[in-house]
Amino acid sequence: MSSLPKIASIGFVGVGIMGQSMAGHLLAAGYQVHVYNRTKSKTDALIAKGATWHDTPGAVAAQSDLIITMVGFPSDVEEVYFGENGIIASAKEAILVDMTTSSPSLARKIAQEAAKKGLASIDAPVSGGDIGARDAKLTIMVGGEQAVFNHVLPVLQKLGTSIILQGGPGMGQHTKMCNQIVIASTIMGVAEGLSYAKKVGLDPAQVLQSIGGGAASGFQLNVLGAKMIIGDYAPGFYVEHFIKDLKIALSEAEQMNLALPGLSLAKSLFEKMAAKGLQRNGTQGIFQIYID
Amino acid sequence: MSSLPKIASIGFVGVGIMGQSMAGHLLAAGYQVHVYNRTKSKTDALIAKGATWHDTPGAVAAQSDLIITMVGFPSDVEEVYFGENGIIASAKEAILVDMTTSSPSLARKIAQEAAKKGLASIDAPVSGGDIGARDAKLTIMVGGEQAVFNHVLPVLQKLGTSIILQGGPGMGQHTKMCNQIVIASTIMGVAEGLSYAKKVGLDPAQVLQSIGGGAASGFQLNVLGAKMIIGDYAPGFYVEHFIKDLKIALSEAEQMNLALPGLSLAKSLFEKMAAKGLQRNGTQGIFQIYID
User: Fold this and answer.
1) What domains can be seen in chain A, in order of their start residue?
2) Which residues of A fall within a CB distance of 8 Å from B193?
C-alpha cells in the first residue's frame, strides 16, 4: 500500500435512500463530493448542494481520495468495482470503502485487487436504515487494516456513531451477517407469537403491552411487531434485500460447515413471501405468511 | 359465582425460587399467608416470617380467601387442584389464582370446575423470572372475568407492575404462550448469530458491541447473548421448563391449525439439549448445540 492520501474529495457511488443522506452529510462537512448513480435523477438534490456528477463509477474514482460504494446486490458491487469503467481500474492513490451489505468473500477479493494496485480498502457495511443514515447515527462494522481504519475514521464519524474495526478484510461483512442472522429468526418468532395471538382471539396490541417489556422485548417485537399488528408493511428494509443477505450468510455458514437451521427456515419463509410478489414489502411482512 | 370474599388470608401452593419471593411480599403487605410445598424445607423462611404451614393444598385452600398456585408442570397443576386433598374439593368461597405457566385448556377446566362449586378463578401466569419476583416487578397476564380481576388486582399489585386482563379463562395462559413463542425463535437466532461470529473468527463480545444497539437488539441478545459469550449457562429459566411451555404452545397451535415452524424447530433444538443432559441449564444454553 502506498501512503494514505489526505482526504479532501470523496466519491459516492450509489445514492439510494441511505446513500443520499450519507453523501449529504459529507457535503455538509465540507468535502468535495463526486457522485454516480445508475438512475441519474437520484443525484439531483446532491448536485444542487454542490456535488459533481460523473458518468461512470470509474470517473468518480479518478477524482476522489476516498470512494464510498453503497449499492444493492453483490452483483452491483462486482460491477462498480470490476466492470467496464469500474473503480479498481480508475482509482489513483485512493481508499476504497464498500458500505453495501455484501459478501465477505467479495470484500476480500476487493481488498486483494485493490492491494495489487497499491490502493487501501475497507469493508464497512452499516445498520440503522434510512433513519440512521438521515440522523448520521449508523452502526458501521469495519473489516480491514488498523492504519486504514484510523485514517478514514473521521469520515465515518460524519455518518455513524458506533464504528468498530471488527477484524481484517471481510470481517465487517461477517459482522453484518451476524446481525442479519439474529434478526432472521427473531422476526420469525415475532410473527409466530403475534399470529398465535390473533388466531386464538386475543387482542394483539394488548398482548404486545404485556410481553413488550420483558424477555421477549426488542426492536423486532416492539417496533416491527407493532407494525404487523396494524398491517403496516411499508418497507424499512426490503424483503428482497434481506433474502440477499440471508443467502450470503447461509452460503458462508455452509463453507464453514456450520448448520444454521433457524436461518435456513427464515430464509425459506421470506422466499415464500417473494414468490407471492411481496418482496418489496418490509421484513415485518413475514407476518402475512402466517395470517393469510 | 357467589359474592367475592374480602381477602384477608392468602394461600400459596408452590414456593420455589419465585414463589418464595412472592409469598414474602404478601406477608410483608399484611396478609395472613398459608403455605404448602412438596419439599417442606422450602417454606422454612416464610414460616419464620409468619406464614402457616399446612400438609396439603386442600388444607391451605380451606383456610384461604384467595389461593395462589405456582408449581412446575401442568401435571402438578392438575394434582394440586384435582388430586387427593386438592384445592377444588376444599376451597370455600375462595378465589383461585393459578400463576403457573400451564396449558390454556387446563386453565379453562379449572375455571369450569371452580364455577360449579361457586368459586371464582383467574389464570395469571407471569414473566420476569426470579429477579422480577424478588423486586415485585412481574408482568402478570390474566385470563378471567373483569369483576374477579378487579377484586384481586390489589393483591397482584403486590407482586407485579404490568398487570393486564387479556380476556376470559385461559387467555392469560395464551398470552404467556405468545411470549414464549417469540422468545423461542429469538434465542435460536441469537445463538446462530453468535456461533457464526465465533466460527468465523470474530470476537463475539466485540460483535455484540456492534449489533447490540440496533435492529437485532433486545433482552435475548443483550442479556442472554452476553451470557453465551462468556459460557455462563446458569439458569435464569430452565430448559426443561421452557420445553414444557413450547410443547403446550405447539399443541394449542396445532389445535388451531396454525403452523409455527420456527417454534417447532426451536423446540427440537431444546429437546436435543435435554437429550444431552443439559435440561437444567438456562435457555441460553442453546448456544451449546451450535458450538459443540
Assistant:
1) 9-167 (3.40.50.720), 174-291 (1.10.1040.10)
2) 178-179, 181-182
Q: What is the distance between the terminal CA atoms of chain B, rounded to a whole angstrom? A: 56
Q: Any bridge partners for residue B33, and if so which?
A: B10
CA gap A14, B98 in Å, rounded: 58
- Interface contact B216-A186, CB threshold 8 A: yes
Q: Do B178 and A201 touch (CB under 8 A)?
A: no
Q: Above 80 in pLDDT, residue B1?
A: no
- Residue pLDDT, tens place only, A63-96: 999 999 999 999 999 999 999 999 999 999 999 9
- State the DSSP code for A238: B
Q: What is the pLDDT of residues B239-285, one digit of tens each?
A: 999 999 999 999 999 999 999 999 999 999 999 999 999 999 999 99
Cβ–Cβ under 8 Å, residues A127 and A179: yes
Task: List all residues of chain B from 68 to 107 with a beta carbon under 8 Å from chain A.
Answer: 104
Orientation of helix B171-200 relative to helix B261-275, angle to 10°: 70
- Global confidence as pTM: 0.96
Nearest 5 degrees, angle CA B94-CA B105-CA B186? 115
Q: In this structure, what C-alpha cell is assigned to residue B159? A: 407482586
Q: What is the pLDDT of residue B130?
A: 87
CA distance A251 to A228: 29
Angle subtended at Cα A56 by Cα A50 and Cα A62, rounded to the nearest 5 degrees: 75
Neighbours of B40 (CB within 10 A): 12
SS3 B85: coil
Mean per-residue pLDDT for B101-106? 96
A253 alpha-carbon distance from chain centroid? 19
Residue B126 pLDDT > 90, yes or no? Answer: yes
Of A51, A235, A99, A216, nearest to B242 by C-alpha is: A216
CB–CB of A178/B196 below 8 Å? yes
**pLDDT attached to residue A3:** 78
Q: Is the ipTM of this complex over 0.90?
A: yes
**Residue B215: partners with Cβ closer than 8 Å, 6 or more residues away:** A127, A128, A129, A179, A183, A219, A220, A237
The Cβ of residue A65 has, within 10 Å, a number of other Cβ atoms equal to 20
> Is A175's CB within 8 Å of B219's CB?
no
Cα(B82)–Cα(B154) distance, integer angstroms: 27
